[in-house]
Design goal:
With 269 residues, this protein is α/β, with parallel strands linked by helices. It has 7 helices and 15 strands. The structure holds S-adenosylmethionine. S-adenosylmethionine binds next to helix 1, strand 1, helix 4 and strand 2. The site of S-adenosylmethionine (SAM) has 21 residues, from helix 1, strand 1, helix 4 and strand 2.
Amino acid sequence: MDILNRLPEDRFEAIDDLLAFISIYDDEERTRRYFELLEAHRTDIEGKVCVEPGCGLGLMSEKLARLGARRVYAVERNPHLFALAQKRLAACEQVVLVHADARTFVPPEPVDVLVHEFYGQLLYDEELHILDGLSWAPRLVLPNGGKLRGGLTFVEAMEDSVVTPEVVRRLEGALVSGLFDEAGLPLQFDVLEWRYGQGLHVPDFVSLEGRRGDLLYFGLEVQHDGQAVCQAGVCGNWSYAWTWRAADRFRLWFEQGDRAPEALFEWCS
Ligand SMILES: C[S@@+](CC[C@H](N)C(=O)[O-])C[C@H]1O[C@@H](n2cnc3c(N)ncnc32)[C@H](O)[C@@H]1O
């Protein structure tokens, strides 16, 4: 969904975000797996104080209330998502819906559980950085980790009559999402890792030496305690990112952009 007409900048941004974030709810597998994670931690949630920074439409906060949380602070910065969450959460008296930026929101009492879904296609290109900069510390974060993993295949094997090898070679240096259908392509090696409390681990470079393939792809794995919760390609909210292999080593890192960290990528000689 794209906005096709010119709008004042802040109105454009707010509606653009609304459209981007409501599309995650098409991914029912993501919601199902998150609910399973919360259910598995029922005893950590029951009677406890929870925070959901970036609550979107409020599904996770509603689930926390149903699992018996004593209080849930559901924090949302986007005015449209906040209004929609207000409607959903009106009947949940344990939920305090807060229209605020999660970077500056400080809960008025100690927090037992923080639940979030701040994962980008490239792991750290959305809002995980917020959790690395909190001025307060929850006892438990759900989920508490994630990886960006990679794999190699051959462009010819993708058998796409439009995105031919000639087209893909033109993409050198660009990481492109949605280029091919990722179905069944395994993630073979680790590229980046994030853990709550430890932040993002970025290696100096990743070596592909000894690995065959001219088409490099990346896929996100949301993890809790090292176990997969959601995976790109399985949960439709995240797709693989693809690029032409131009060398045997690459670097992938992030620099803070206007709104979220921006990914930088380069091949190393
Ligand atoms: C990927 S959605 C997840 C929504 C919800 N947690 C869920 O899992 O269904 C991320 C949400 O975080 C919100 N968000 C992003 N940055 C934020 C910030 N700094 N403060 C508050 N909300 C933020 C977005 O508007 C969006 O609703």
